[in-house]
Each structure stands twice: as structure tokens, then as C-alpha cells.
Amino acid sequence: MAGLTVGIMVIPQGMAYATIAGLPPIYGLYTAFIPSVLYFLFGSSKHLVVGPTAVVSLMIESAASSSGLHPSEPGYPQMVFLITLMSGIFLFILGITQVGYLANLISHPVISGFTSAAAFLIGFSQLKHLFGISMPRDSTIIPLVKHFVNNVEDTNGWCLLMGLIGTTIIILFKVSKKTKWIPVPLFLVVVSILLTKYLKLDEIAHIKIVGTIPKGFLPPINPLNNISESKLLKLIPVSIQISLVIVMESVSIGKTFAAKSGYTLQATMEFIALSLSNIVGSFFGSYACAGSFTRTAVNHNSGAKSPLSNLISGILVMFTILVLTPLFYFLPYTILAAFVLSAVYKLFDYQEIIFLWRVKKRDLIVWLSAFLGTLFLGIELGILISIAMSFFIVVVASSFVSM
What are residue 27's DSSP bridge partners? Predict the structure, then answer.
């Protein structure tokens, strides 16, 4: 039951997160399938669900775009898969050298500040789908706000109405404890598709739809094809950053649910599982993946007892890829935006701000540095600032102890 529940949840989520990464929705399904099967084979957590996540999707888009490619260009997907491959290789290196444990030195205020800023950037990136307006891609908040203000007068009212209703329904059902058994994602997808198709909302109301999604799997891809050595060297820093975020997201989630259920997470196996999920996936249309807190929580609460739930959800996604993708033709992008917005609003950790203000004002400065750095300077510089702040805190704290 847990695997089926997660599978129903990840299908629309995966397609939505692929749009954050600048990819067509089908790549979100590939990322929901291949890593889940590999994690079932090699992972040690009984509950961790691996696949597309909002923060890593944003980092992938930022990294691929910084190489000079626009998501609409033919070479963009290969660049994404190359970054995924390199991130997987660095994950493997971090694991076998045990350097990955340096991720434990990154303090919680830094992680919270970074993910809170990422939530804002992800949210603003989805406003073009929610409002039905044209907005260029950008990785910092000021241009995004400017683009939105300049284009908000072109808002498609029907698009906005459908998106807001979808977002509200998802959030209300998430909050309600009595309706956990209702497959809201499936219900919302089916209803929005039927309304759009039979009321011809794509023609009459000009609501943008997903359109044709190819059925079946891609032939194997070579991410290294026609890639110069200089380009590889330029991608090393951002690939290391992405691998560190994957570690921070996945291992912290895995440890949390392992502690709740009374078992120990095997760190070495986690690095192997995560690295293989990204390395192998990069050859088959899957982009960078990590542990998902939301889907892991659902998996745990649905009674999962082993990694088998990953395999079951993967099989459901595989069936969707092989058989059901034509049914998503009339799925509105504004509904995909609703899935993203209803997921990322929880990433803004306002409780952490209140706690730090009351208890640890020094750490609040750290939180603000990570938050503002990421928000105004972008994901890549933001995470560098965040990591630098973490190590600075460790060094300062160690010097005071030694005194």
C-alpha cells in the first residue's frame, strides 16, 4: 500500500519538478522510476524515497543554464545528464573517501536558510505557469520579481483560478488528518484533464497544456558525447555542490526516519545507492535525484517496512511511462505549478527564525547570510556562502573551546 501511495504521489510531482529543472515532464517520470529501483537494490533505509526533488531540480536548472544553454536548446538535456553523471561520481568519491561526512559540519541554520531561499526562488519560477504569463528564467530574486511585475497585467484569469483552486485543495487535504486516504494528486490530475479536454479550456481560455508526452523509454544516452575537457572542468564546482546537497537532503532524512523506527542507517550503503542512482540514471534520461522528505514521510506513515515500497512505486511509474503518458496530453501546466507550490511552501522554515531569535541570535545571522546570499546572488554563490559560513562557525567554535 505504501509503494502505491508514493507512486500516485510522485507521478504528478515528478512531472512538475522536471519543469523546475527546465526539462519536459517525461524526464521527471524517468527520474521517479530509475533511482527508486536502484535505491531498492542498494539502499539501507527502510523508508527513504529517492527521486526528483524541488531544490535539486532548481540547482540542476541553474547549473545547466550557467553553461550558456537555454532549456529550449537541443543540447540542454545532455548538459543536465552530464551534470547528473558528474554529481553521481563525486557522490561515490565522497562515500569511499569518507569526505562526505564533512556535510555533517554544515549547521542546521545554514541548511534551513539555503532551503528557505530556494523555496522562494522555486515559487517565483512557477508564477509564469500559475498566472499564465511569459517570464524569462533567472536564478536570483530581483529579476524574477521585475519580470513578474512587468508581465502580471497579462494574467490569464482562468489559468490563475484553476491553479489557485488546485493549490488550495492540495494544501487543505495535506493539513486534514481525516482525509489522508484520499488520492488527492490522482483526483486533481484526472479532474483537470477532463475539464480542460471537454470544455476545450486550452482553446477557449488559452490554458497552456503539457501536450504530447512520448510513450516508453529513451534509448541509452551518452552524457559525455562531444563534451570538451574545458567544459568538464568548468562543471566540477557545481557538480560537487549538487552532490553535497544530495547528501545533506538524503542522509538527514534517512537518519530522521531510521531513528523514529529504531534502526541504523548504513552511511556507506547510502552513498553507493545515491551515487549509482545518479550515475546509471544519467544514461537513461534521469536527472539528479535525492531523498524526498514529503514522499518519505508519506511512505513511513503508510506503513512501509522495507525498501520494497521504492520498487512498487517504481513499477507504477514504469507502467505510466509505458502505457499512460498519452492520457496526460490535456494536463494544464498551472496544475503542475500547484503541485510545486503546495510542496515548497513548507521549505520556508519560519519556525527556525523564531527559535533562533529567541535562543541563538548568532545563528540567526548565519541563517540570514545563507538565506539572503542564495536569494540575491543565486543558488551557486548562495550554497558557497552557506558552506563557508558553516566551516567558519566550526573553526570559531573550536578556537573558543581550545582557549
Answer: none
